[in-house]
């Protein structure tokens, strides 16, 4: 894509070989990718011009939204979504090549979410093997690669097996085979990365704060603004405004370009209703 | 209240002196309170008849909903809300009485949320003191009580200071003074605990799944069912159905009794729209 002709710098939620790293490679196969330890650090890197784009997780099909990403984008920075990346979450059981012949392990290490995602497989196949929580799937893979003398296994993605030279004993051991995570590619300027699928499905993400007097029924009014225009919402979710229990803002994904006449009309009516709208821009999907 | 004349057994999310423990004492001052380590264990205790009621956190004004509570109530059990408890979250800095004269500490220990909630106070008053994460506020208080020879402090609630005999050095050090947490009191049968404030404000919590063909705009239709009846929603939130990215159910709090004629009409229309509605019952608030 055009953005990559000069070598761009991209922050992502690390460590190396994380699922976010995989997502960042999908959008930026030839750029300089820099791992950050936390979501706020990753987002601040682009807000402070240390990098051109940040790639952070937004939502998982099983766990739901990542509140830290949504809250940081609402409360702390004004950034724009230039693309979203949808990645399947596939977990594999991996060991040091010295232990490739073994099928009984001292312990299995991974991030708590990955252990949970493989619950049924682990229950039926390794019922008596201790499960040990680790800070990330790729940190667990790294640790296993450094301790060939211990007959231990890690659960993680294929990329971390490659990176740390591990042997995959069981592939695709996750219980739900539709599990995906959605990532945002963030920038300081409101623009779009190239449309990789060349489809017409552009999406706009809005953060809508209701009027301060918080009339009950305002969400119904907000949805009416979109409904009669046949603007489809693929998602709507509430998050606390942090001003007191019961005060929320809404994050909505609308299936249209923010510059379309219908969207411009919707923005005007939302303002007339007393709502404050923060747009994160319009963008295409990398699958 | 009537429920307490025979001594009831109550599970709560522990450890002892947790904020959930405080909330449970508000609703059940004279009952047998039993700490459980995790939210699922606490909920299962009532589902399996080990206790009469379970008290679990649902939502915090800063952090938002507790996904584990909502998902477990939707996917795993059929329980009812018999009351909700609203508790202010007040954090204090506490030390062993031997160190009561000190105002400079080796380190300050607490749960990561509590450290985050006191961020500004800690930044301005103890800028160079290391902050150490601990599994809970009351576990941190317990540890400080057991190590008088170390000049360390914990952050937690007043109850944990009392329980572990600690001296409070600074009171109410949390940054936001409106911070509350909302707790559910769960039972296997659909009934209401006594209305402690003797007000008329009864609330019903519903879990609404849209029809499987997931017509876009269904949330607008759902809200219309309530809006024209002047049934006010104090909260609506989406959570993943765990059937694939983009598939959600909605948890809605409606300000009316589920047996009212308007609510019964709403239930019939929601069914006609193809929605599946799981009611958690109607209940009053303990503040």
TrEMBL record, chains A, B:
Q: What is this protein called?
A: Prephenate dehydratase
Say yes or no: keyword Lyase present. Answer: yes
Give the matching Gene3D superfamilies.
3.30.70.260, Periplasmic binding protein-like II (3.40.190.10)
Q: Where does the Prephenate dehydratase domain start and stop, copy by copy?
A: 9-188
Q: Which GO terms describe its cellular component?
A: cytoplasm
Please list the residue ranges annotated as the ACT domain. 207-284
**Hey, which pathway is this one from?**
Amino-acid biosynthesis; L-phenylalanine biosynthesis; phenylpyruvate from prephenate: step 1/1
Q: Where is this site: Essential for prephenate dehydratase activity?
A: 181
Matching entries from InterPro entries are given as:
ACT-like_dom_sf (IPR045865), ACT_dom (IPR002912), Chor_mutase/pphenate_deHydtase (IPR008242), Preph_deHydtase (IPR001086), Preph_deHydtase_CS (IPR018528)
Recorded hits in SUPFAM superfamilies, A to Z, give:
ACT-like (SSF55021), Periplasmic binding protein-like II (SSF53850)
Gene symbol of the encoding locus? pheA
Q: Which reaction does it catalyse?
A: prephenate + H(+) = 3-phenylpyruvate + CO2 + H2O
| Gene Ontology BP annotations | L-phenylalanine biosynthetic process
Listed GO MF terms: prephenate dehydratase activity
Q: Which UniProt keywords apply?
A: Amino-acid biosynthesis, Aromatic amino acid biosynthesis, Lyase, Phenylalanine biosynthesis
Q: Its Enzyme Commission number?
A: 4.2.1.51
Q: Which Pfam families match?
A: ACT, PDT
């Amino acid at each position: 894509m055009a953005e990559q002709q000069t070598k761009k710098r991209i922050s992502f939620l690390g460590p190396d070989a994380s699922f976010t790293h995989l997502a960042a490679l999908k959008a930026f196969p030839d750029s300089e990718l820099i791992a950050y330890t936390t979501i706020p650090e990753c987002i601040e890197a682009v807000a402070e011009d240390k990098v051109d784009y940040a790639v952070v997780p937004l939502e998982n099909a099983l766990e739901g939204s990542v509140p830290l990403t949504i809250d940081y984008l609402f409360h702390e920075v004004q950034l724009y979504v230039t693309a979203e990346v949808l990645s399947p979450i596939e977990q594999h059981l991996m060991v040091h090549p010295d232990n490739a012949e073994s099928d009984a392990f001292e312990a299995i290490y991974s991030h708590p979410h990955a252990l949970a995602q493989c619950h049924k497989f682990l229950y039926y196949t390794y019922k008596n093997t201790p499960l040990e929580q680790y800070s990330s799937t790729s940190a667990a893979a790294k640790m296993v690669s450094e301790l060939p003398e211990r007959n231990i296994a890690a659960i993680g993605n294929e990329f971390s097996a490659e990176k740390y030279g591990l042997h995959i004993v069981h592939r695709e051991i996750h219980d739900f085979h539709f599990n995906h995570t959605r990532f945002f590619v963030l920038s300081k300027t409101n623009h779009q990365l190239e449309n990789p699928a060349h489809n017409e499905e552009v999406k706009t993400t809005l953060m809508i704060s209701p009027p301060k007097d918080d009339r009950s029924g305002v969400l119904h009014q907000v949805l009416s603004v979109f409904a009669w225009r046949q603007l489809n919402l693929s998602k709507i979710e509430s998050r606390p405004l942090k001003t007191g229990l019961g005060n929320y803002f809404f994050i909505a994904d609308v299936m249209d370009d923010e510059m379309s006449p219908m969207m411009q009309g919707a923005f005007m009516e939302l303002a007339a209703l007393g709502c404050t709208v923060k747009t994160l821009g319009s963008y295409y999907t990398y699958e």
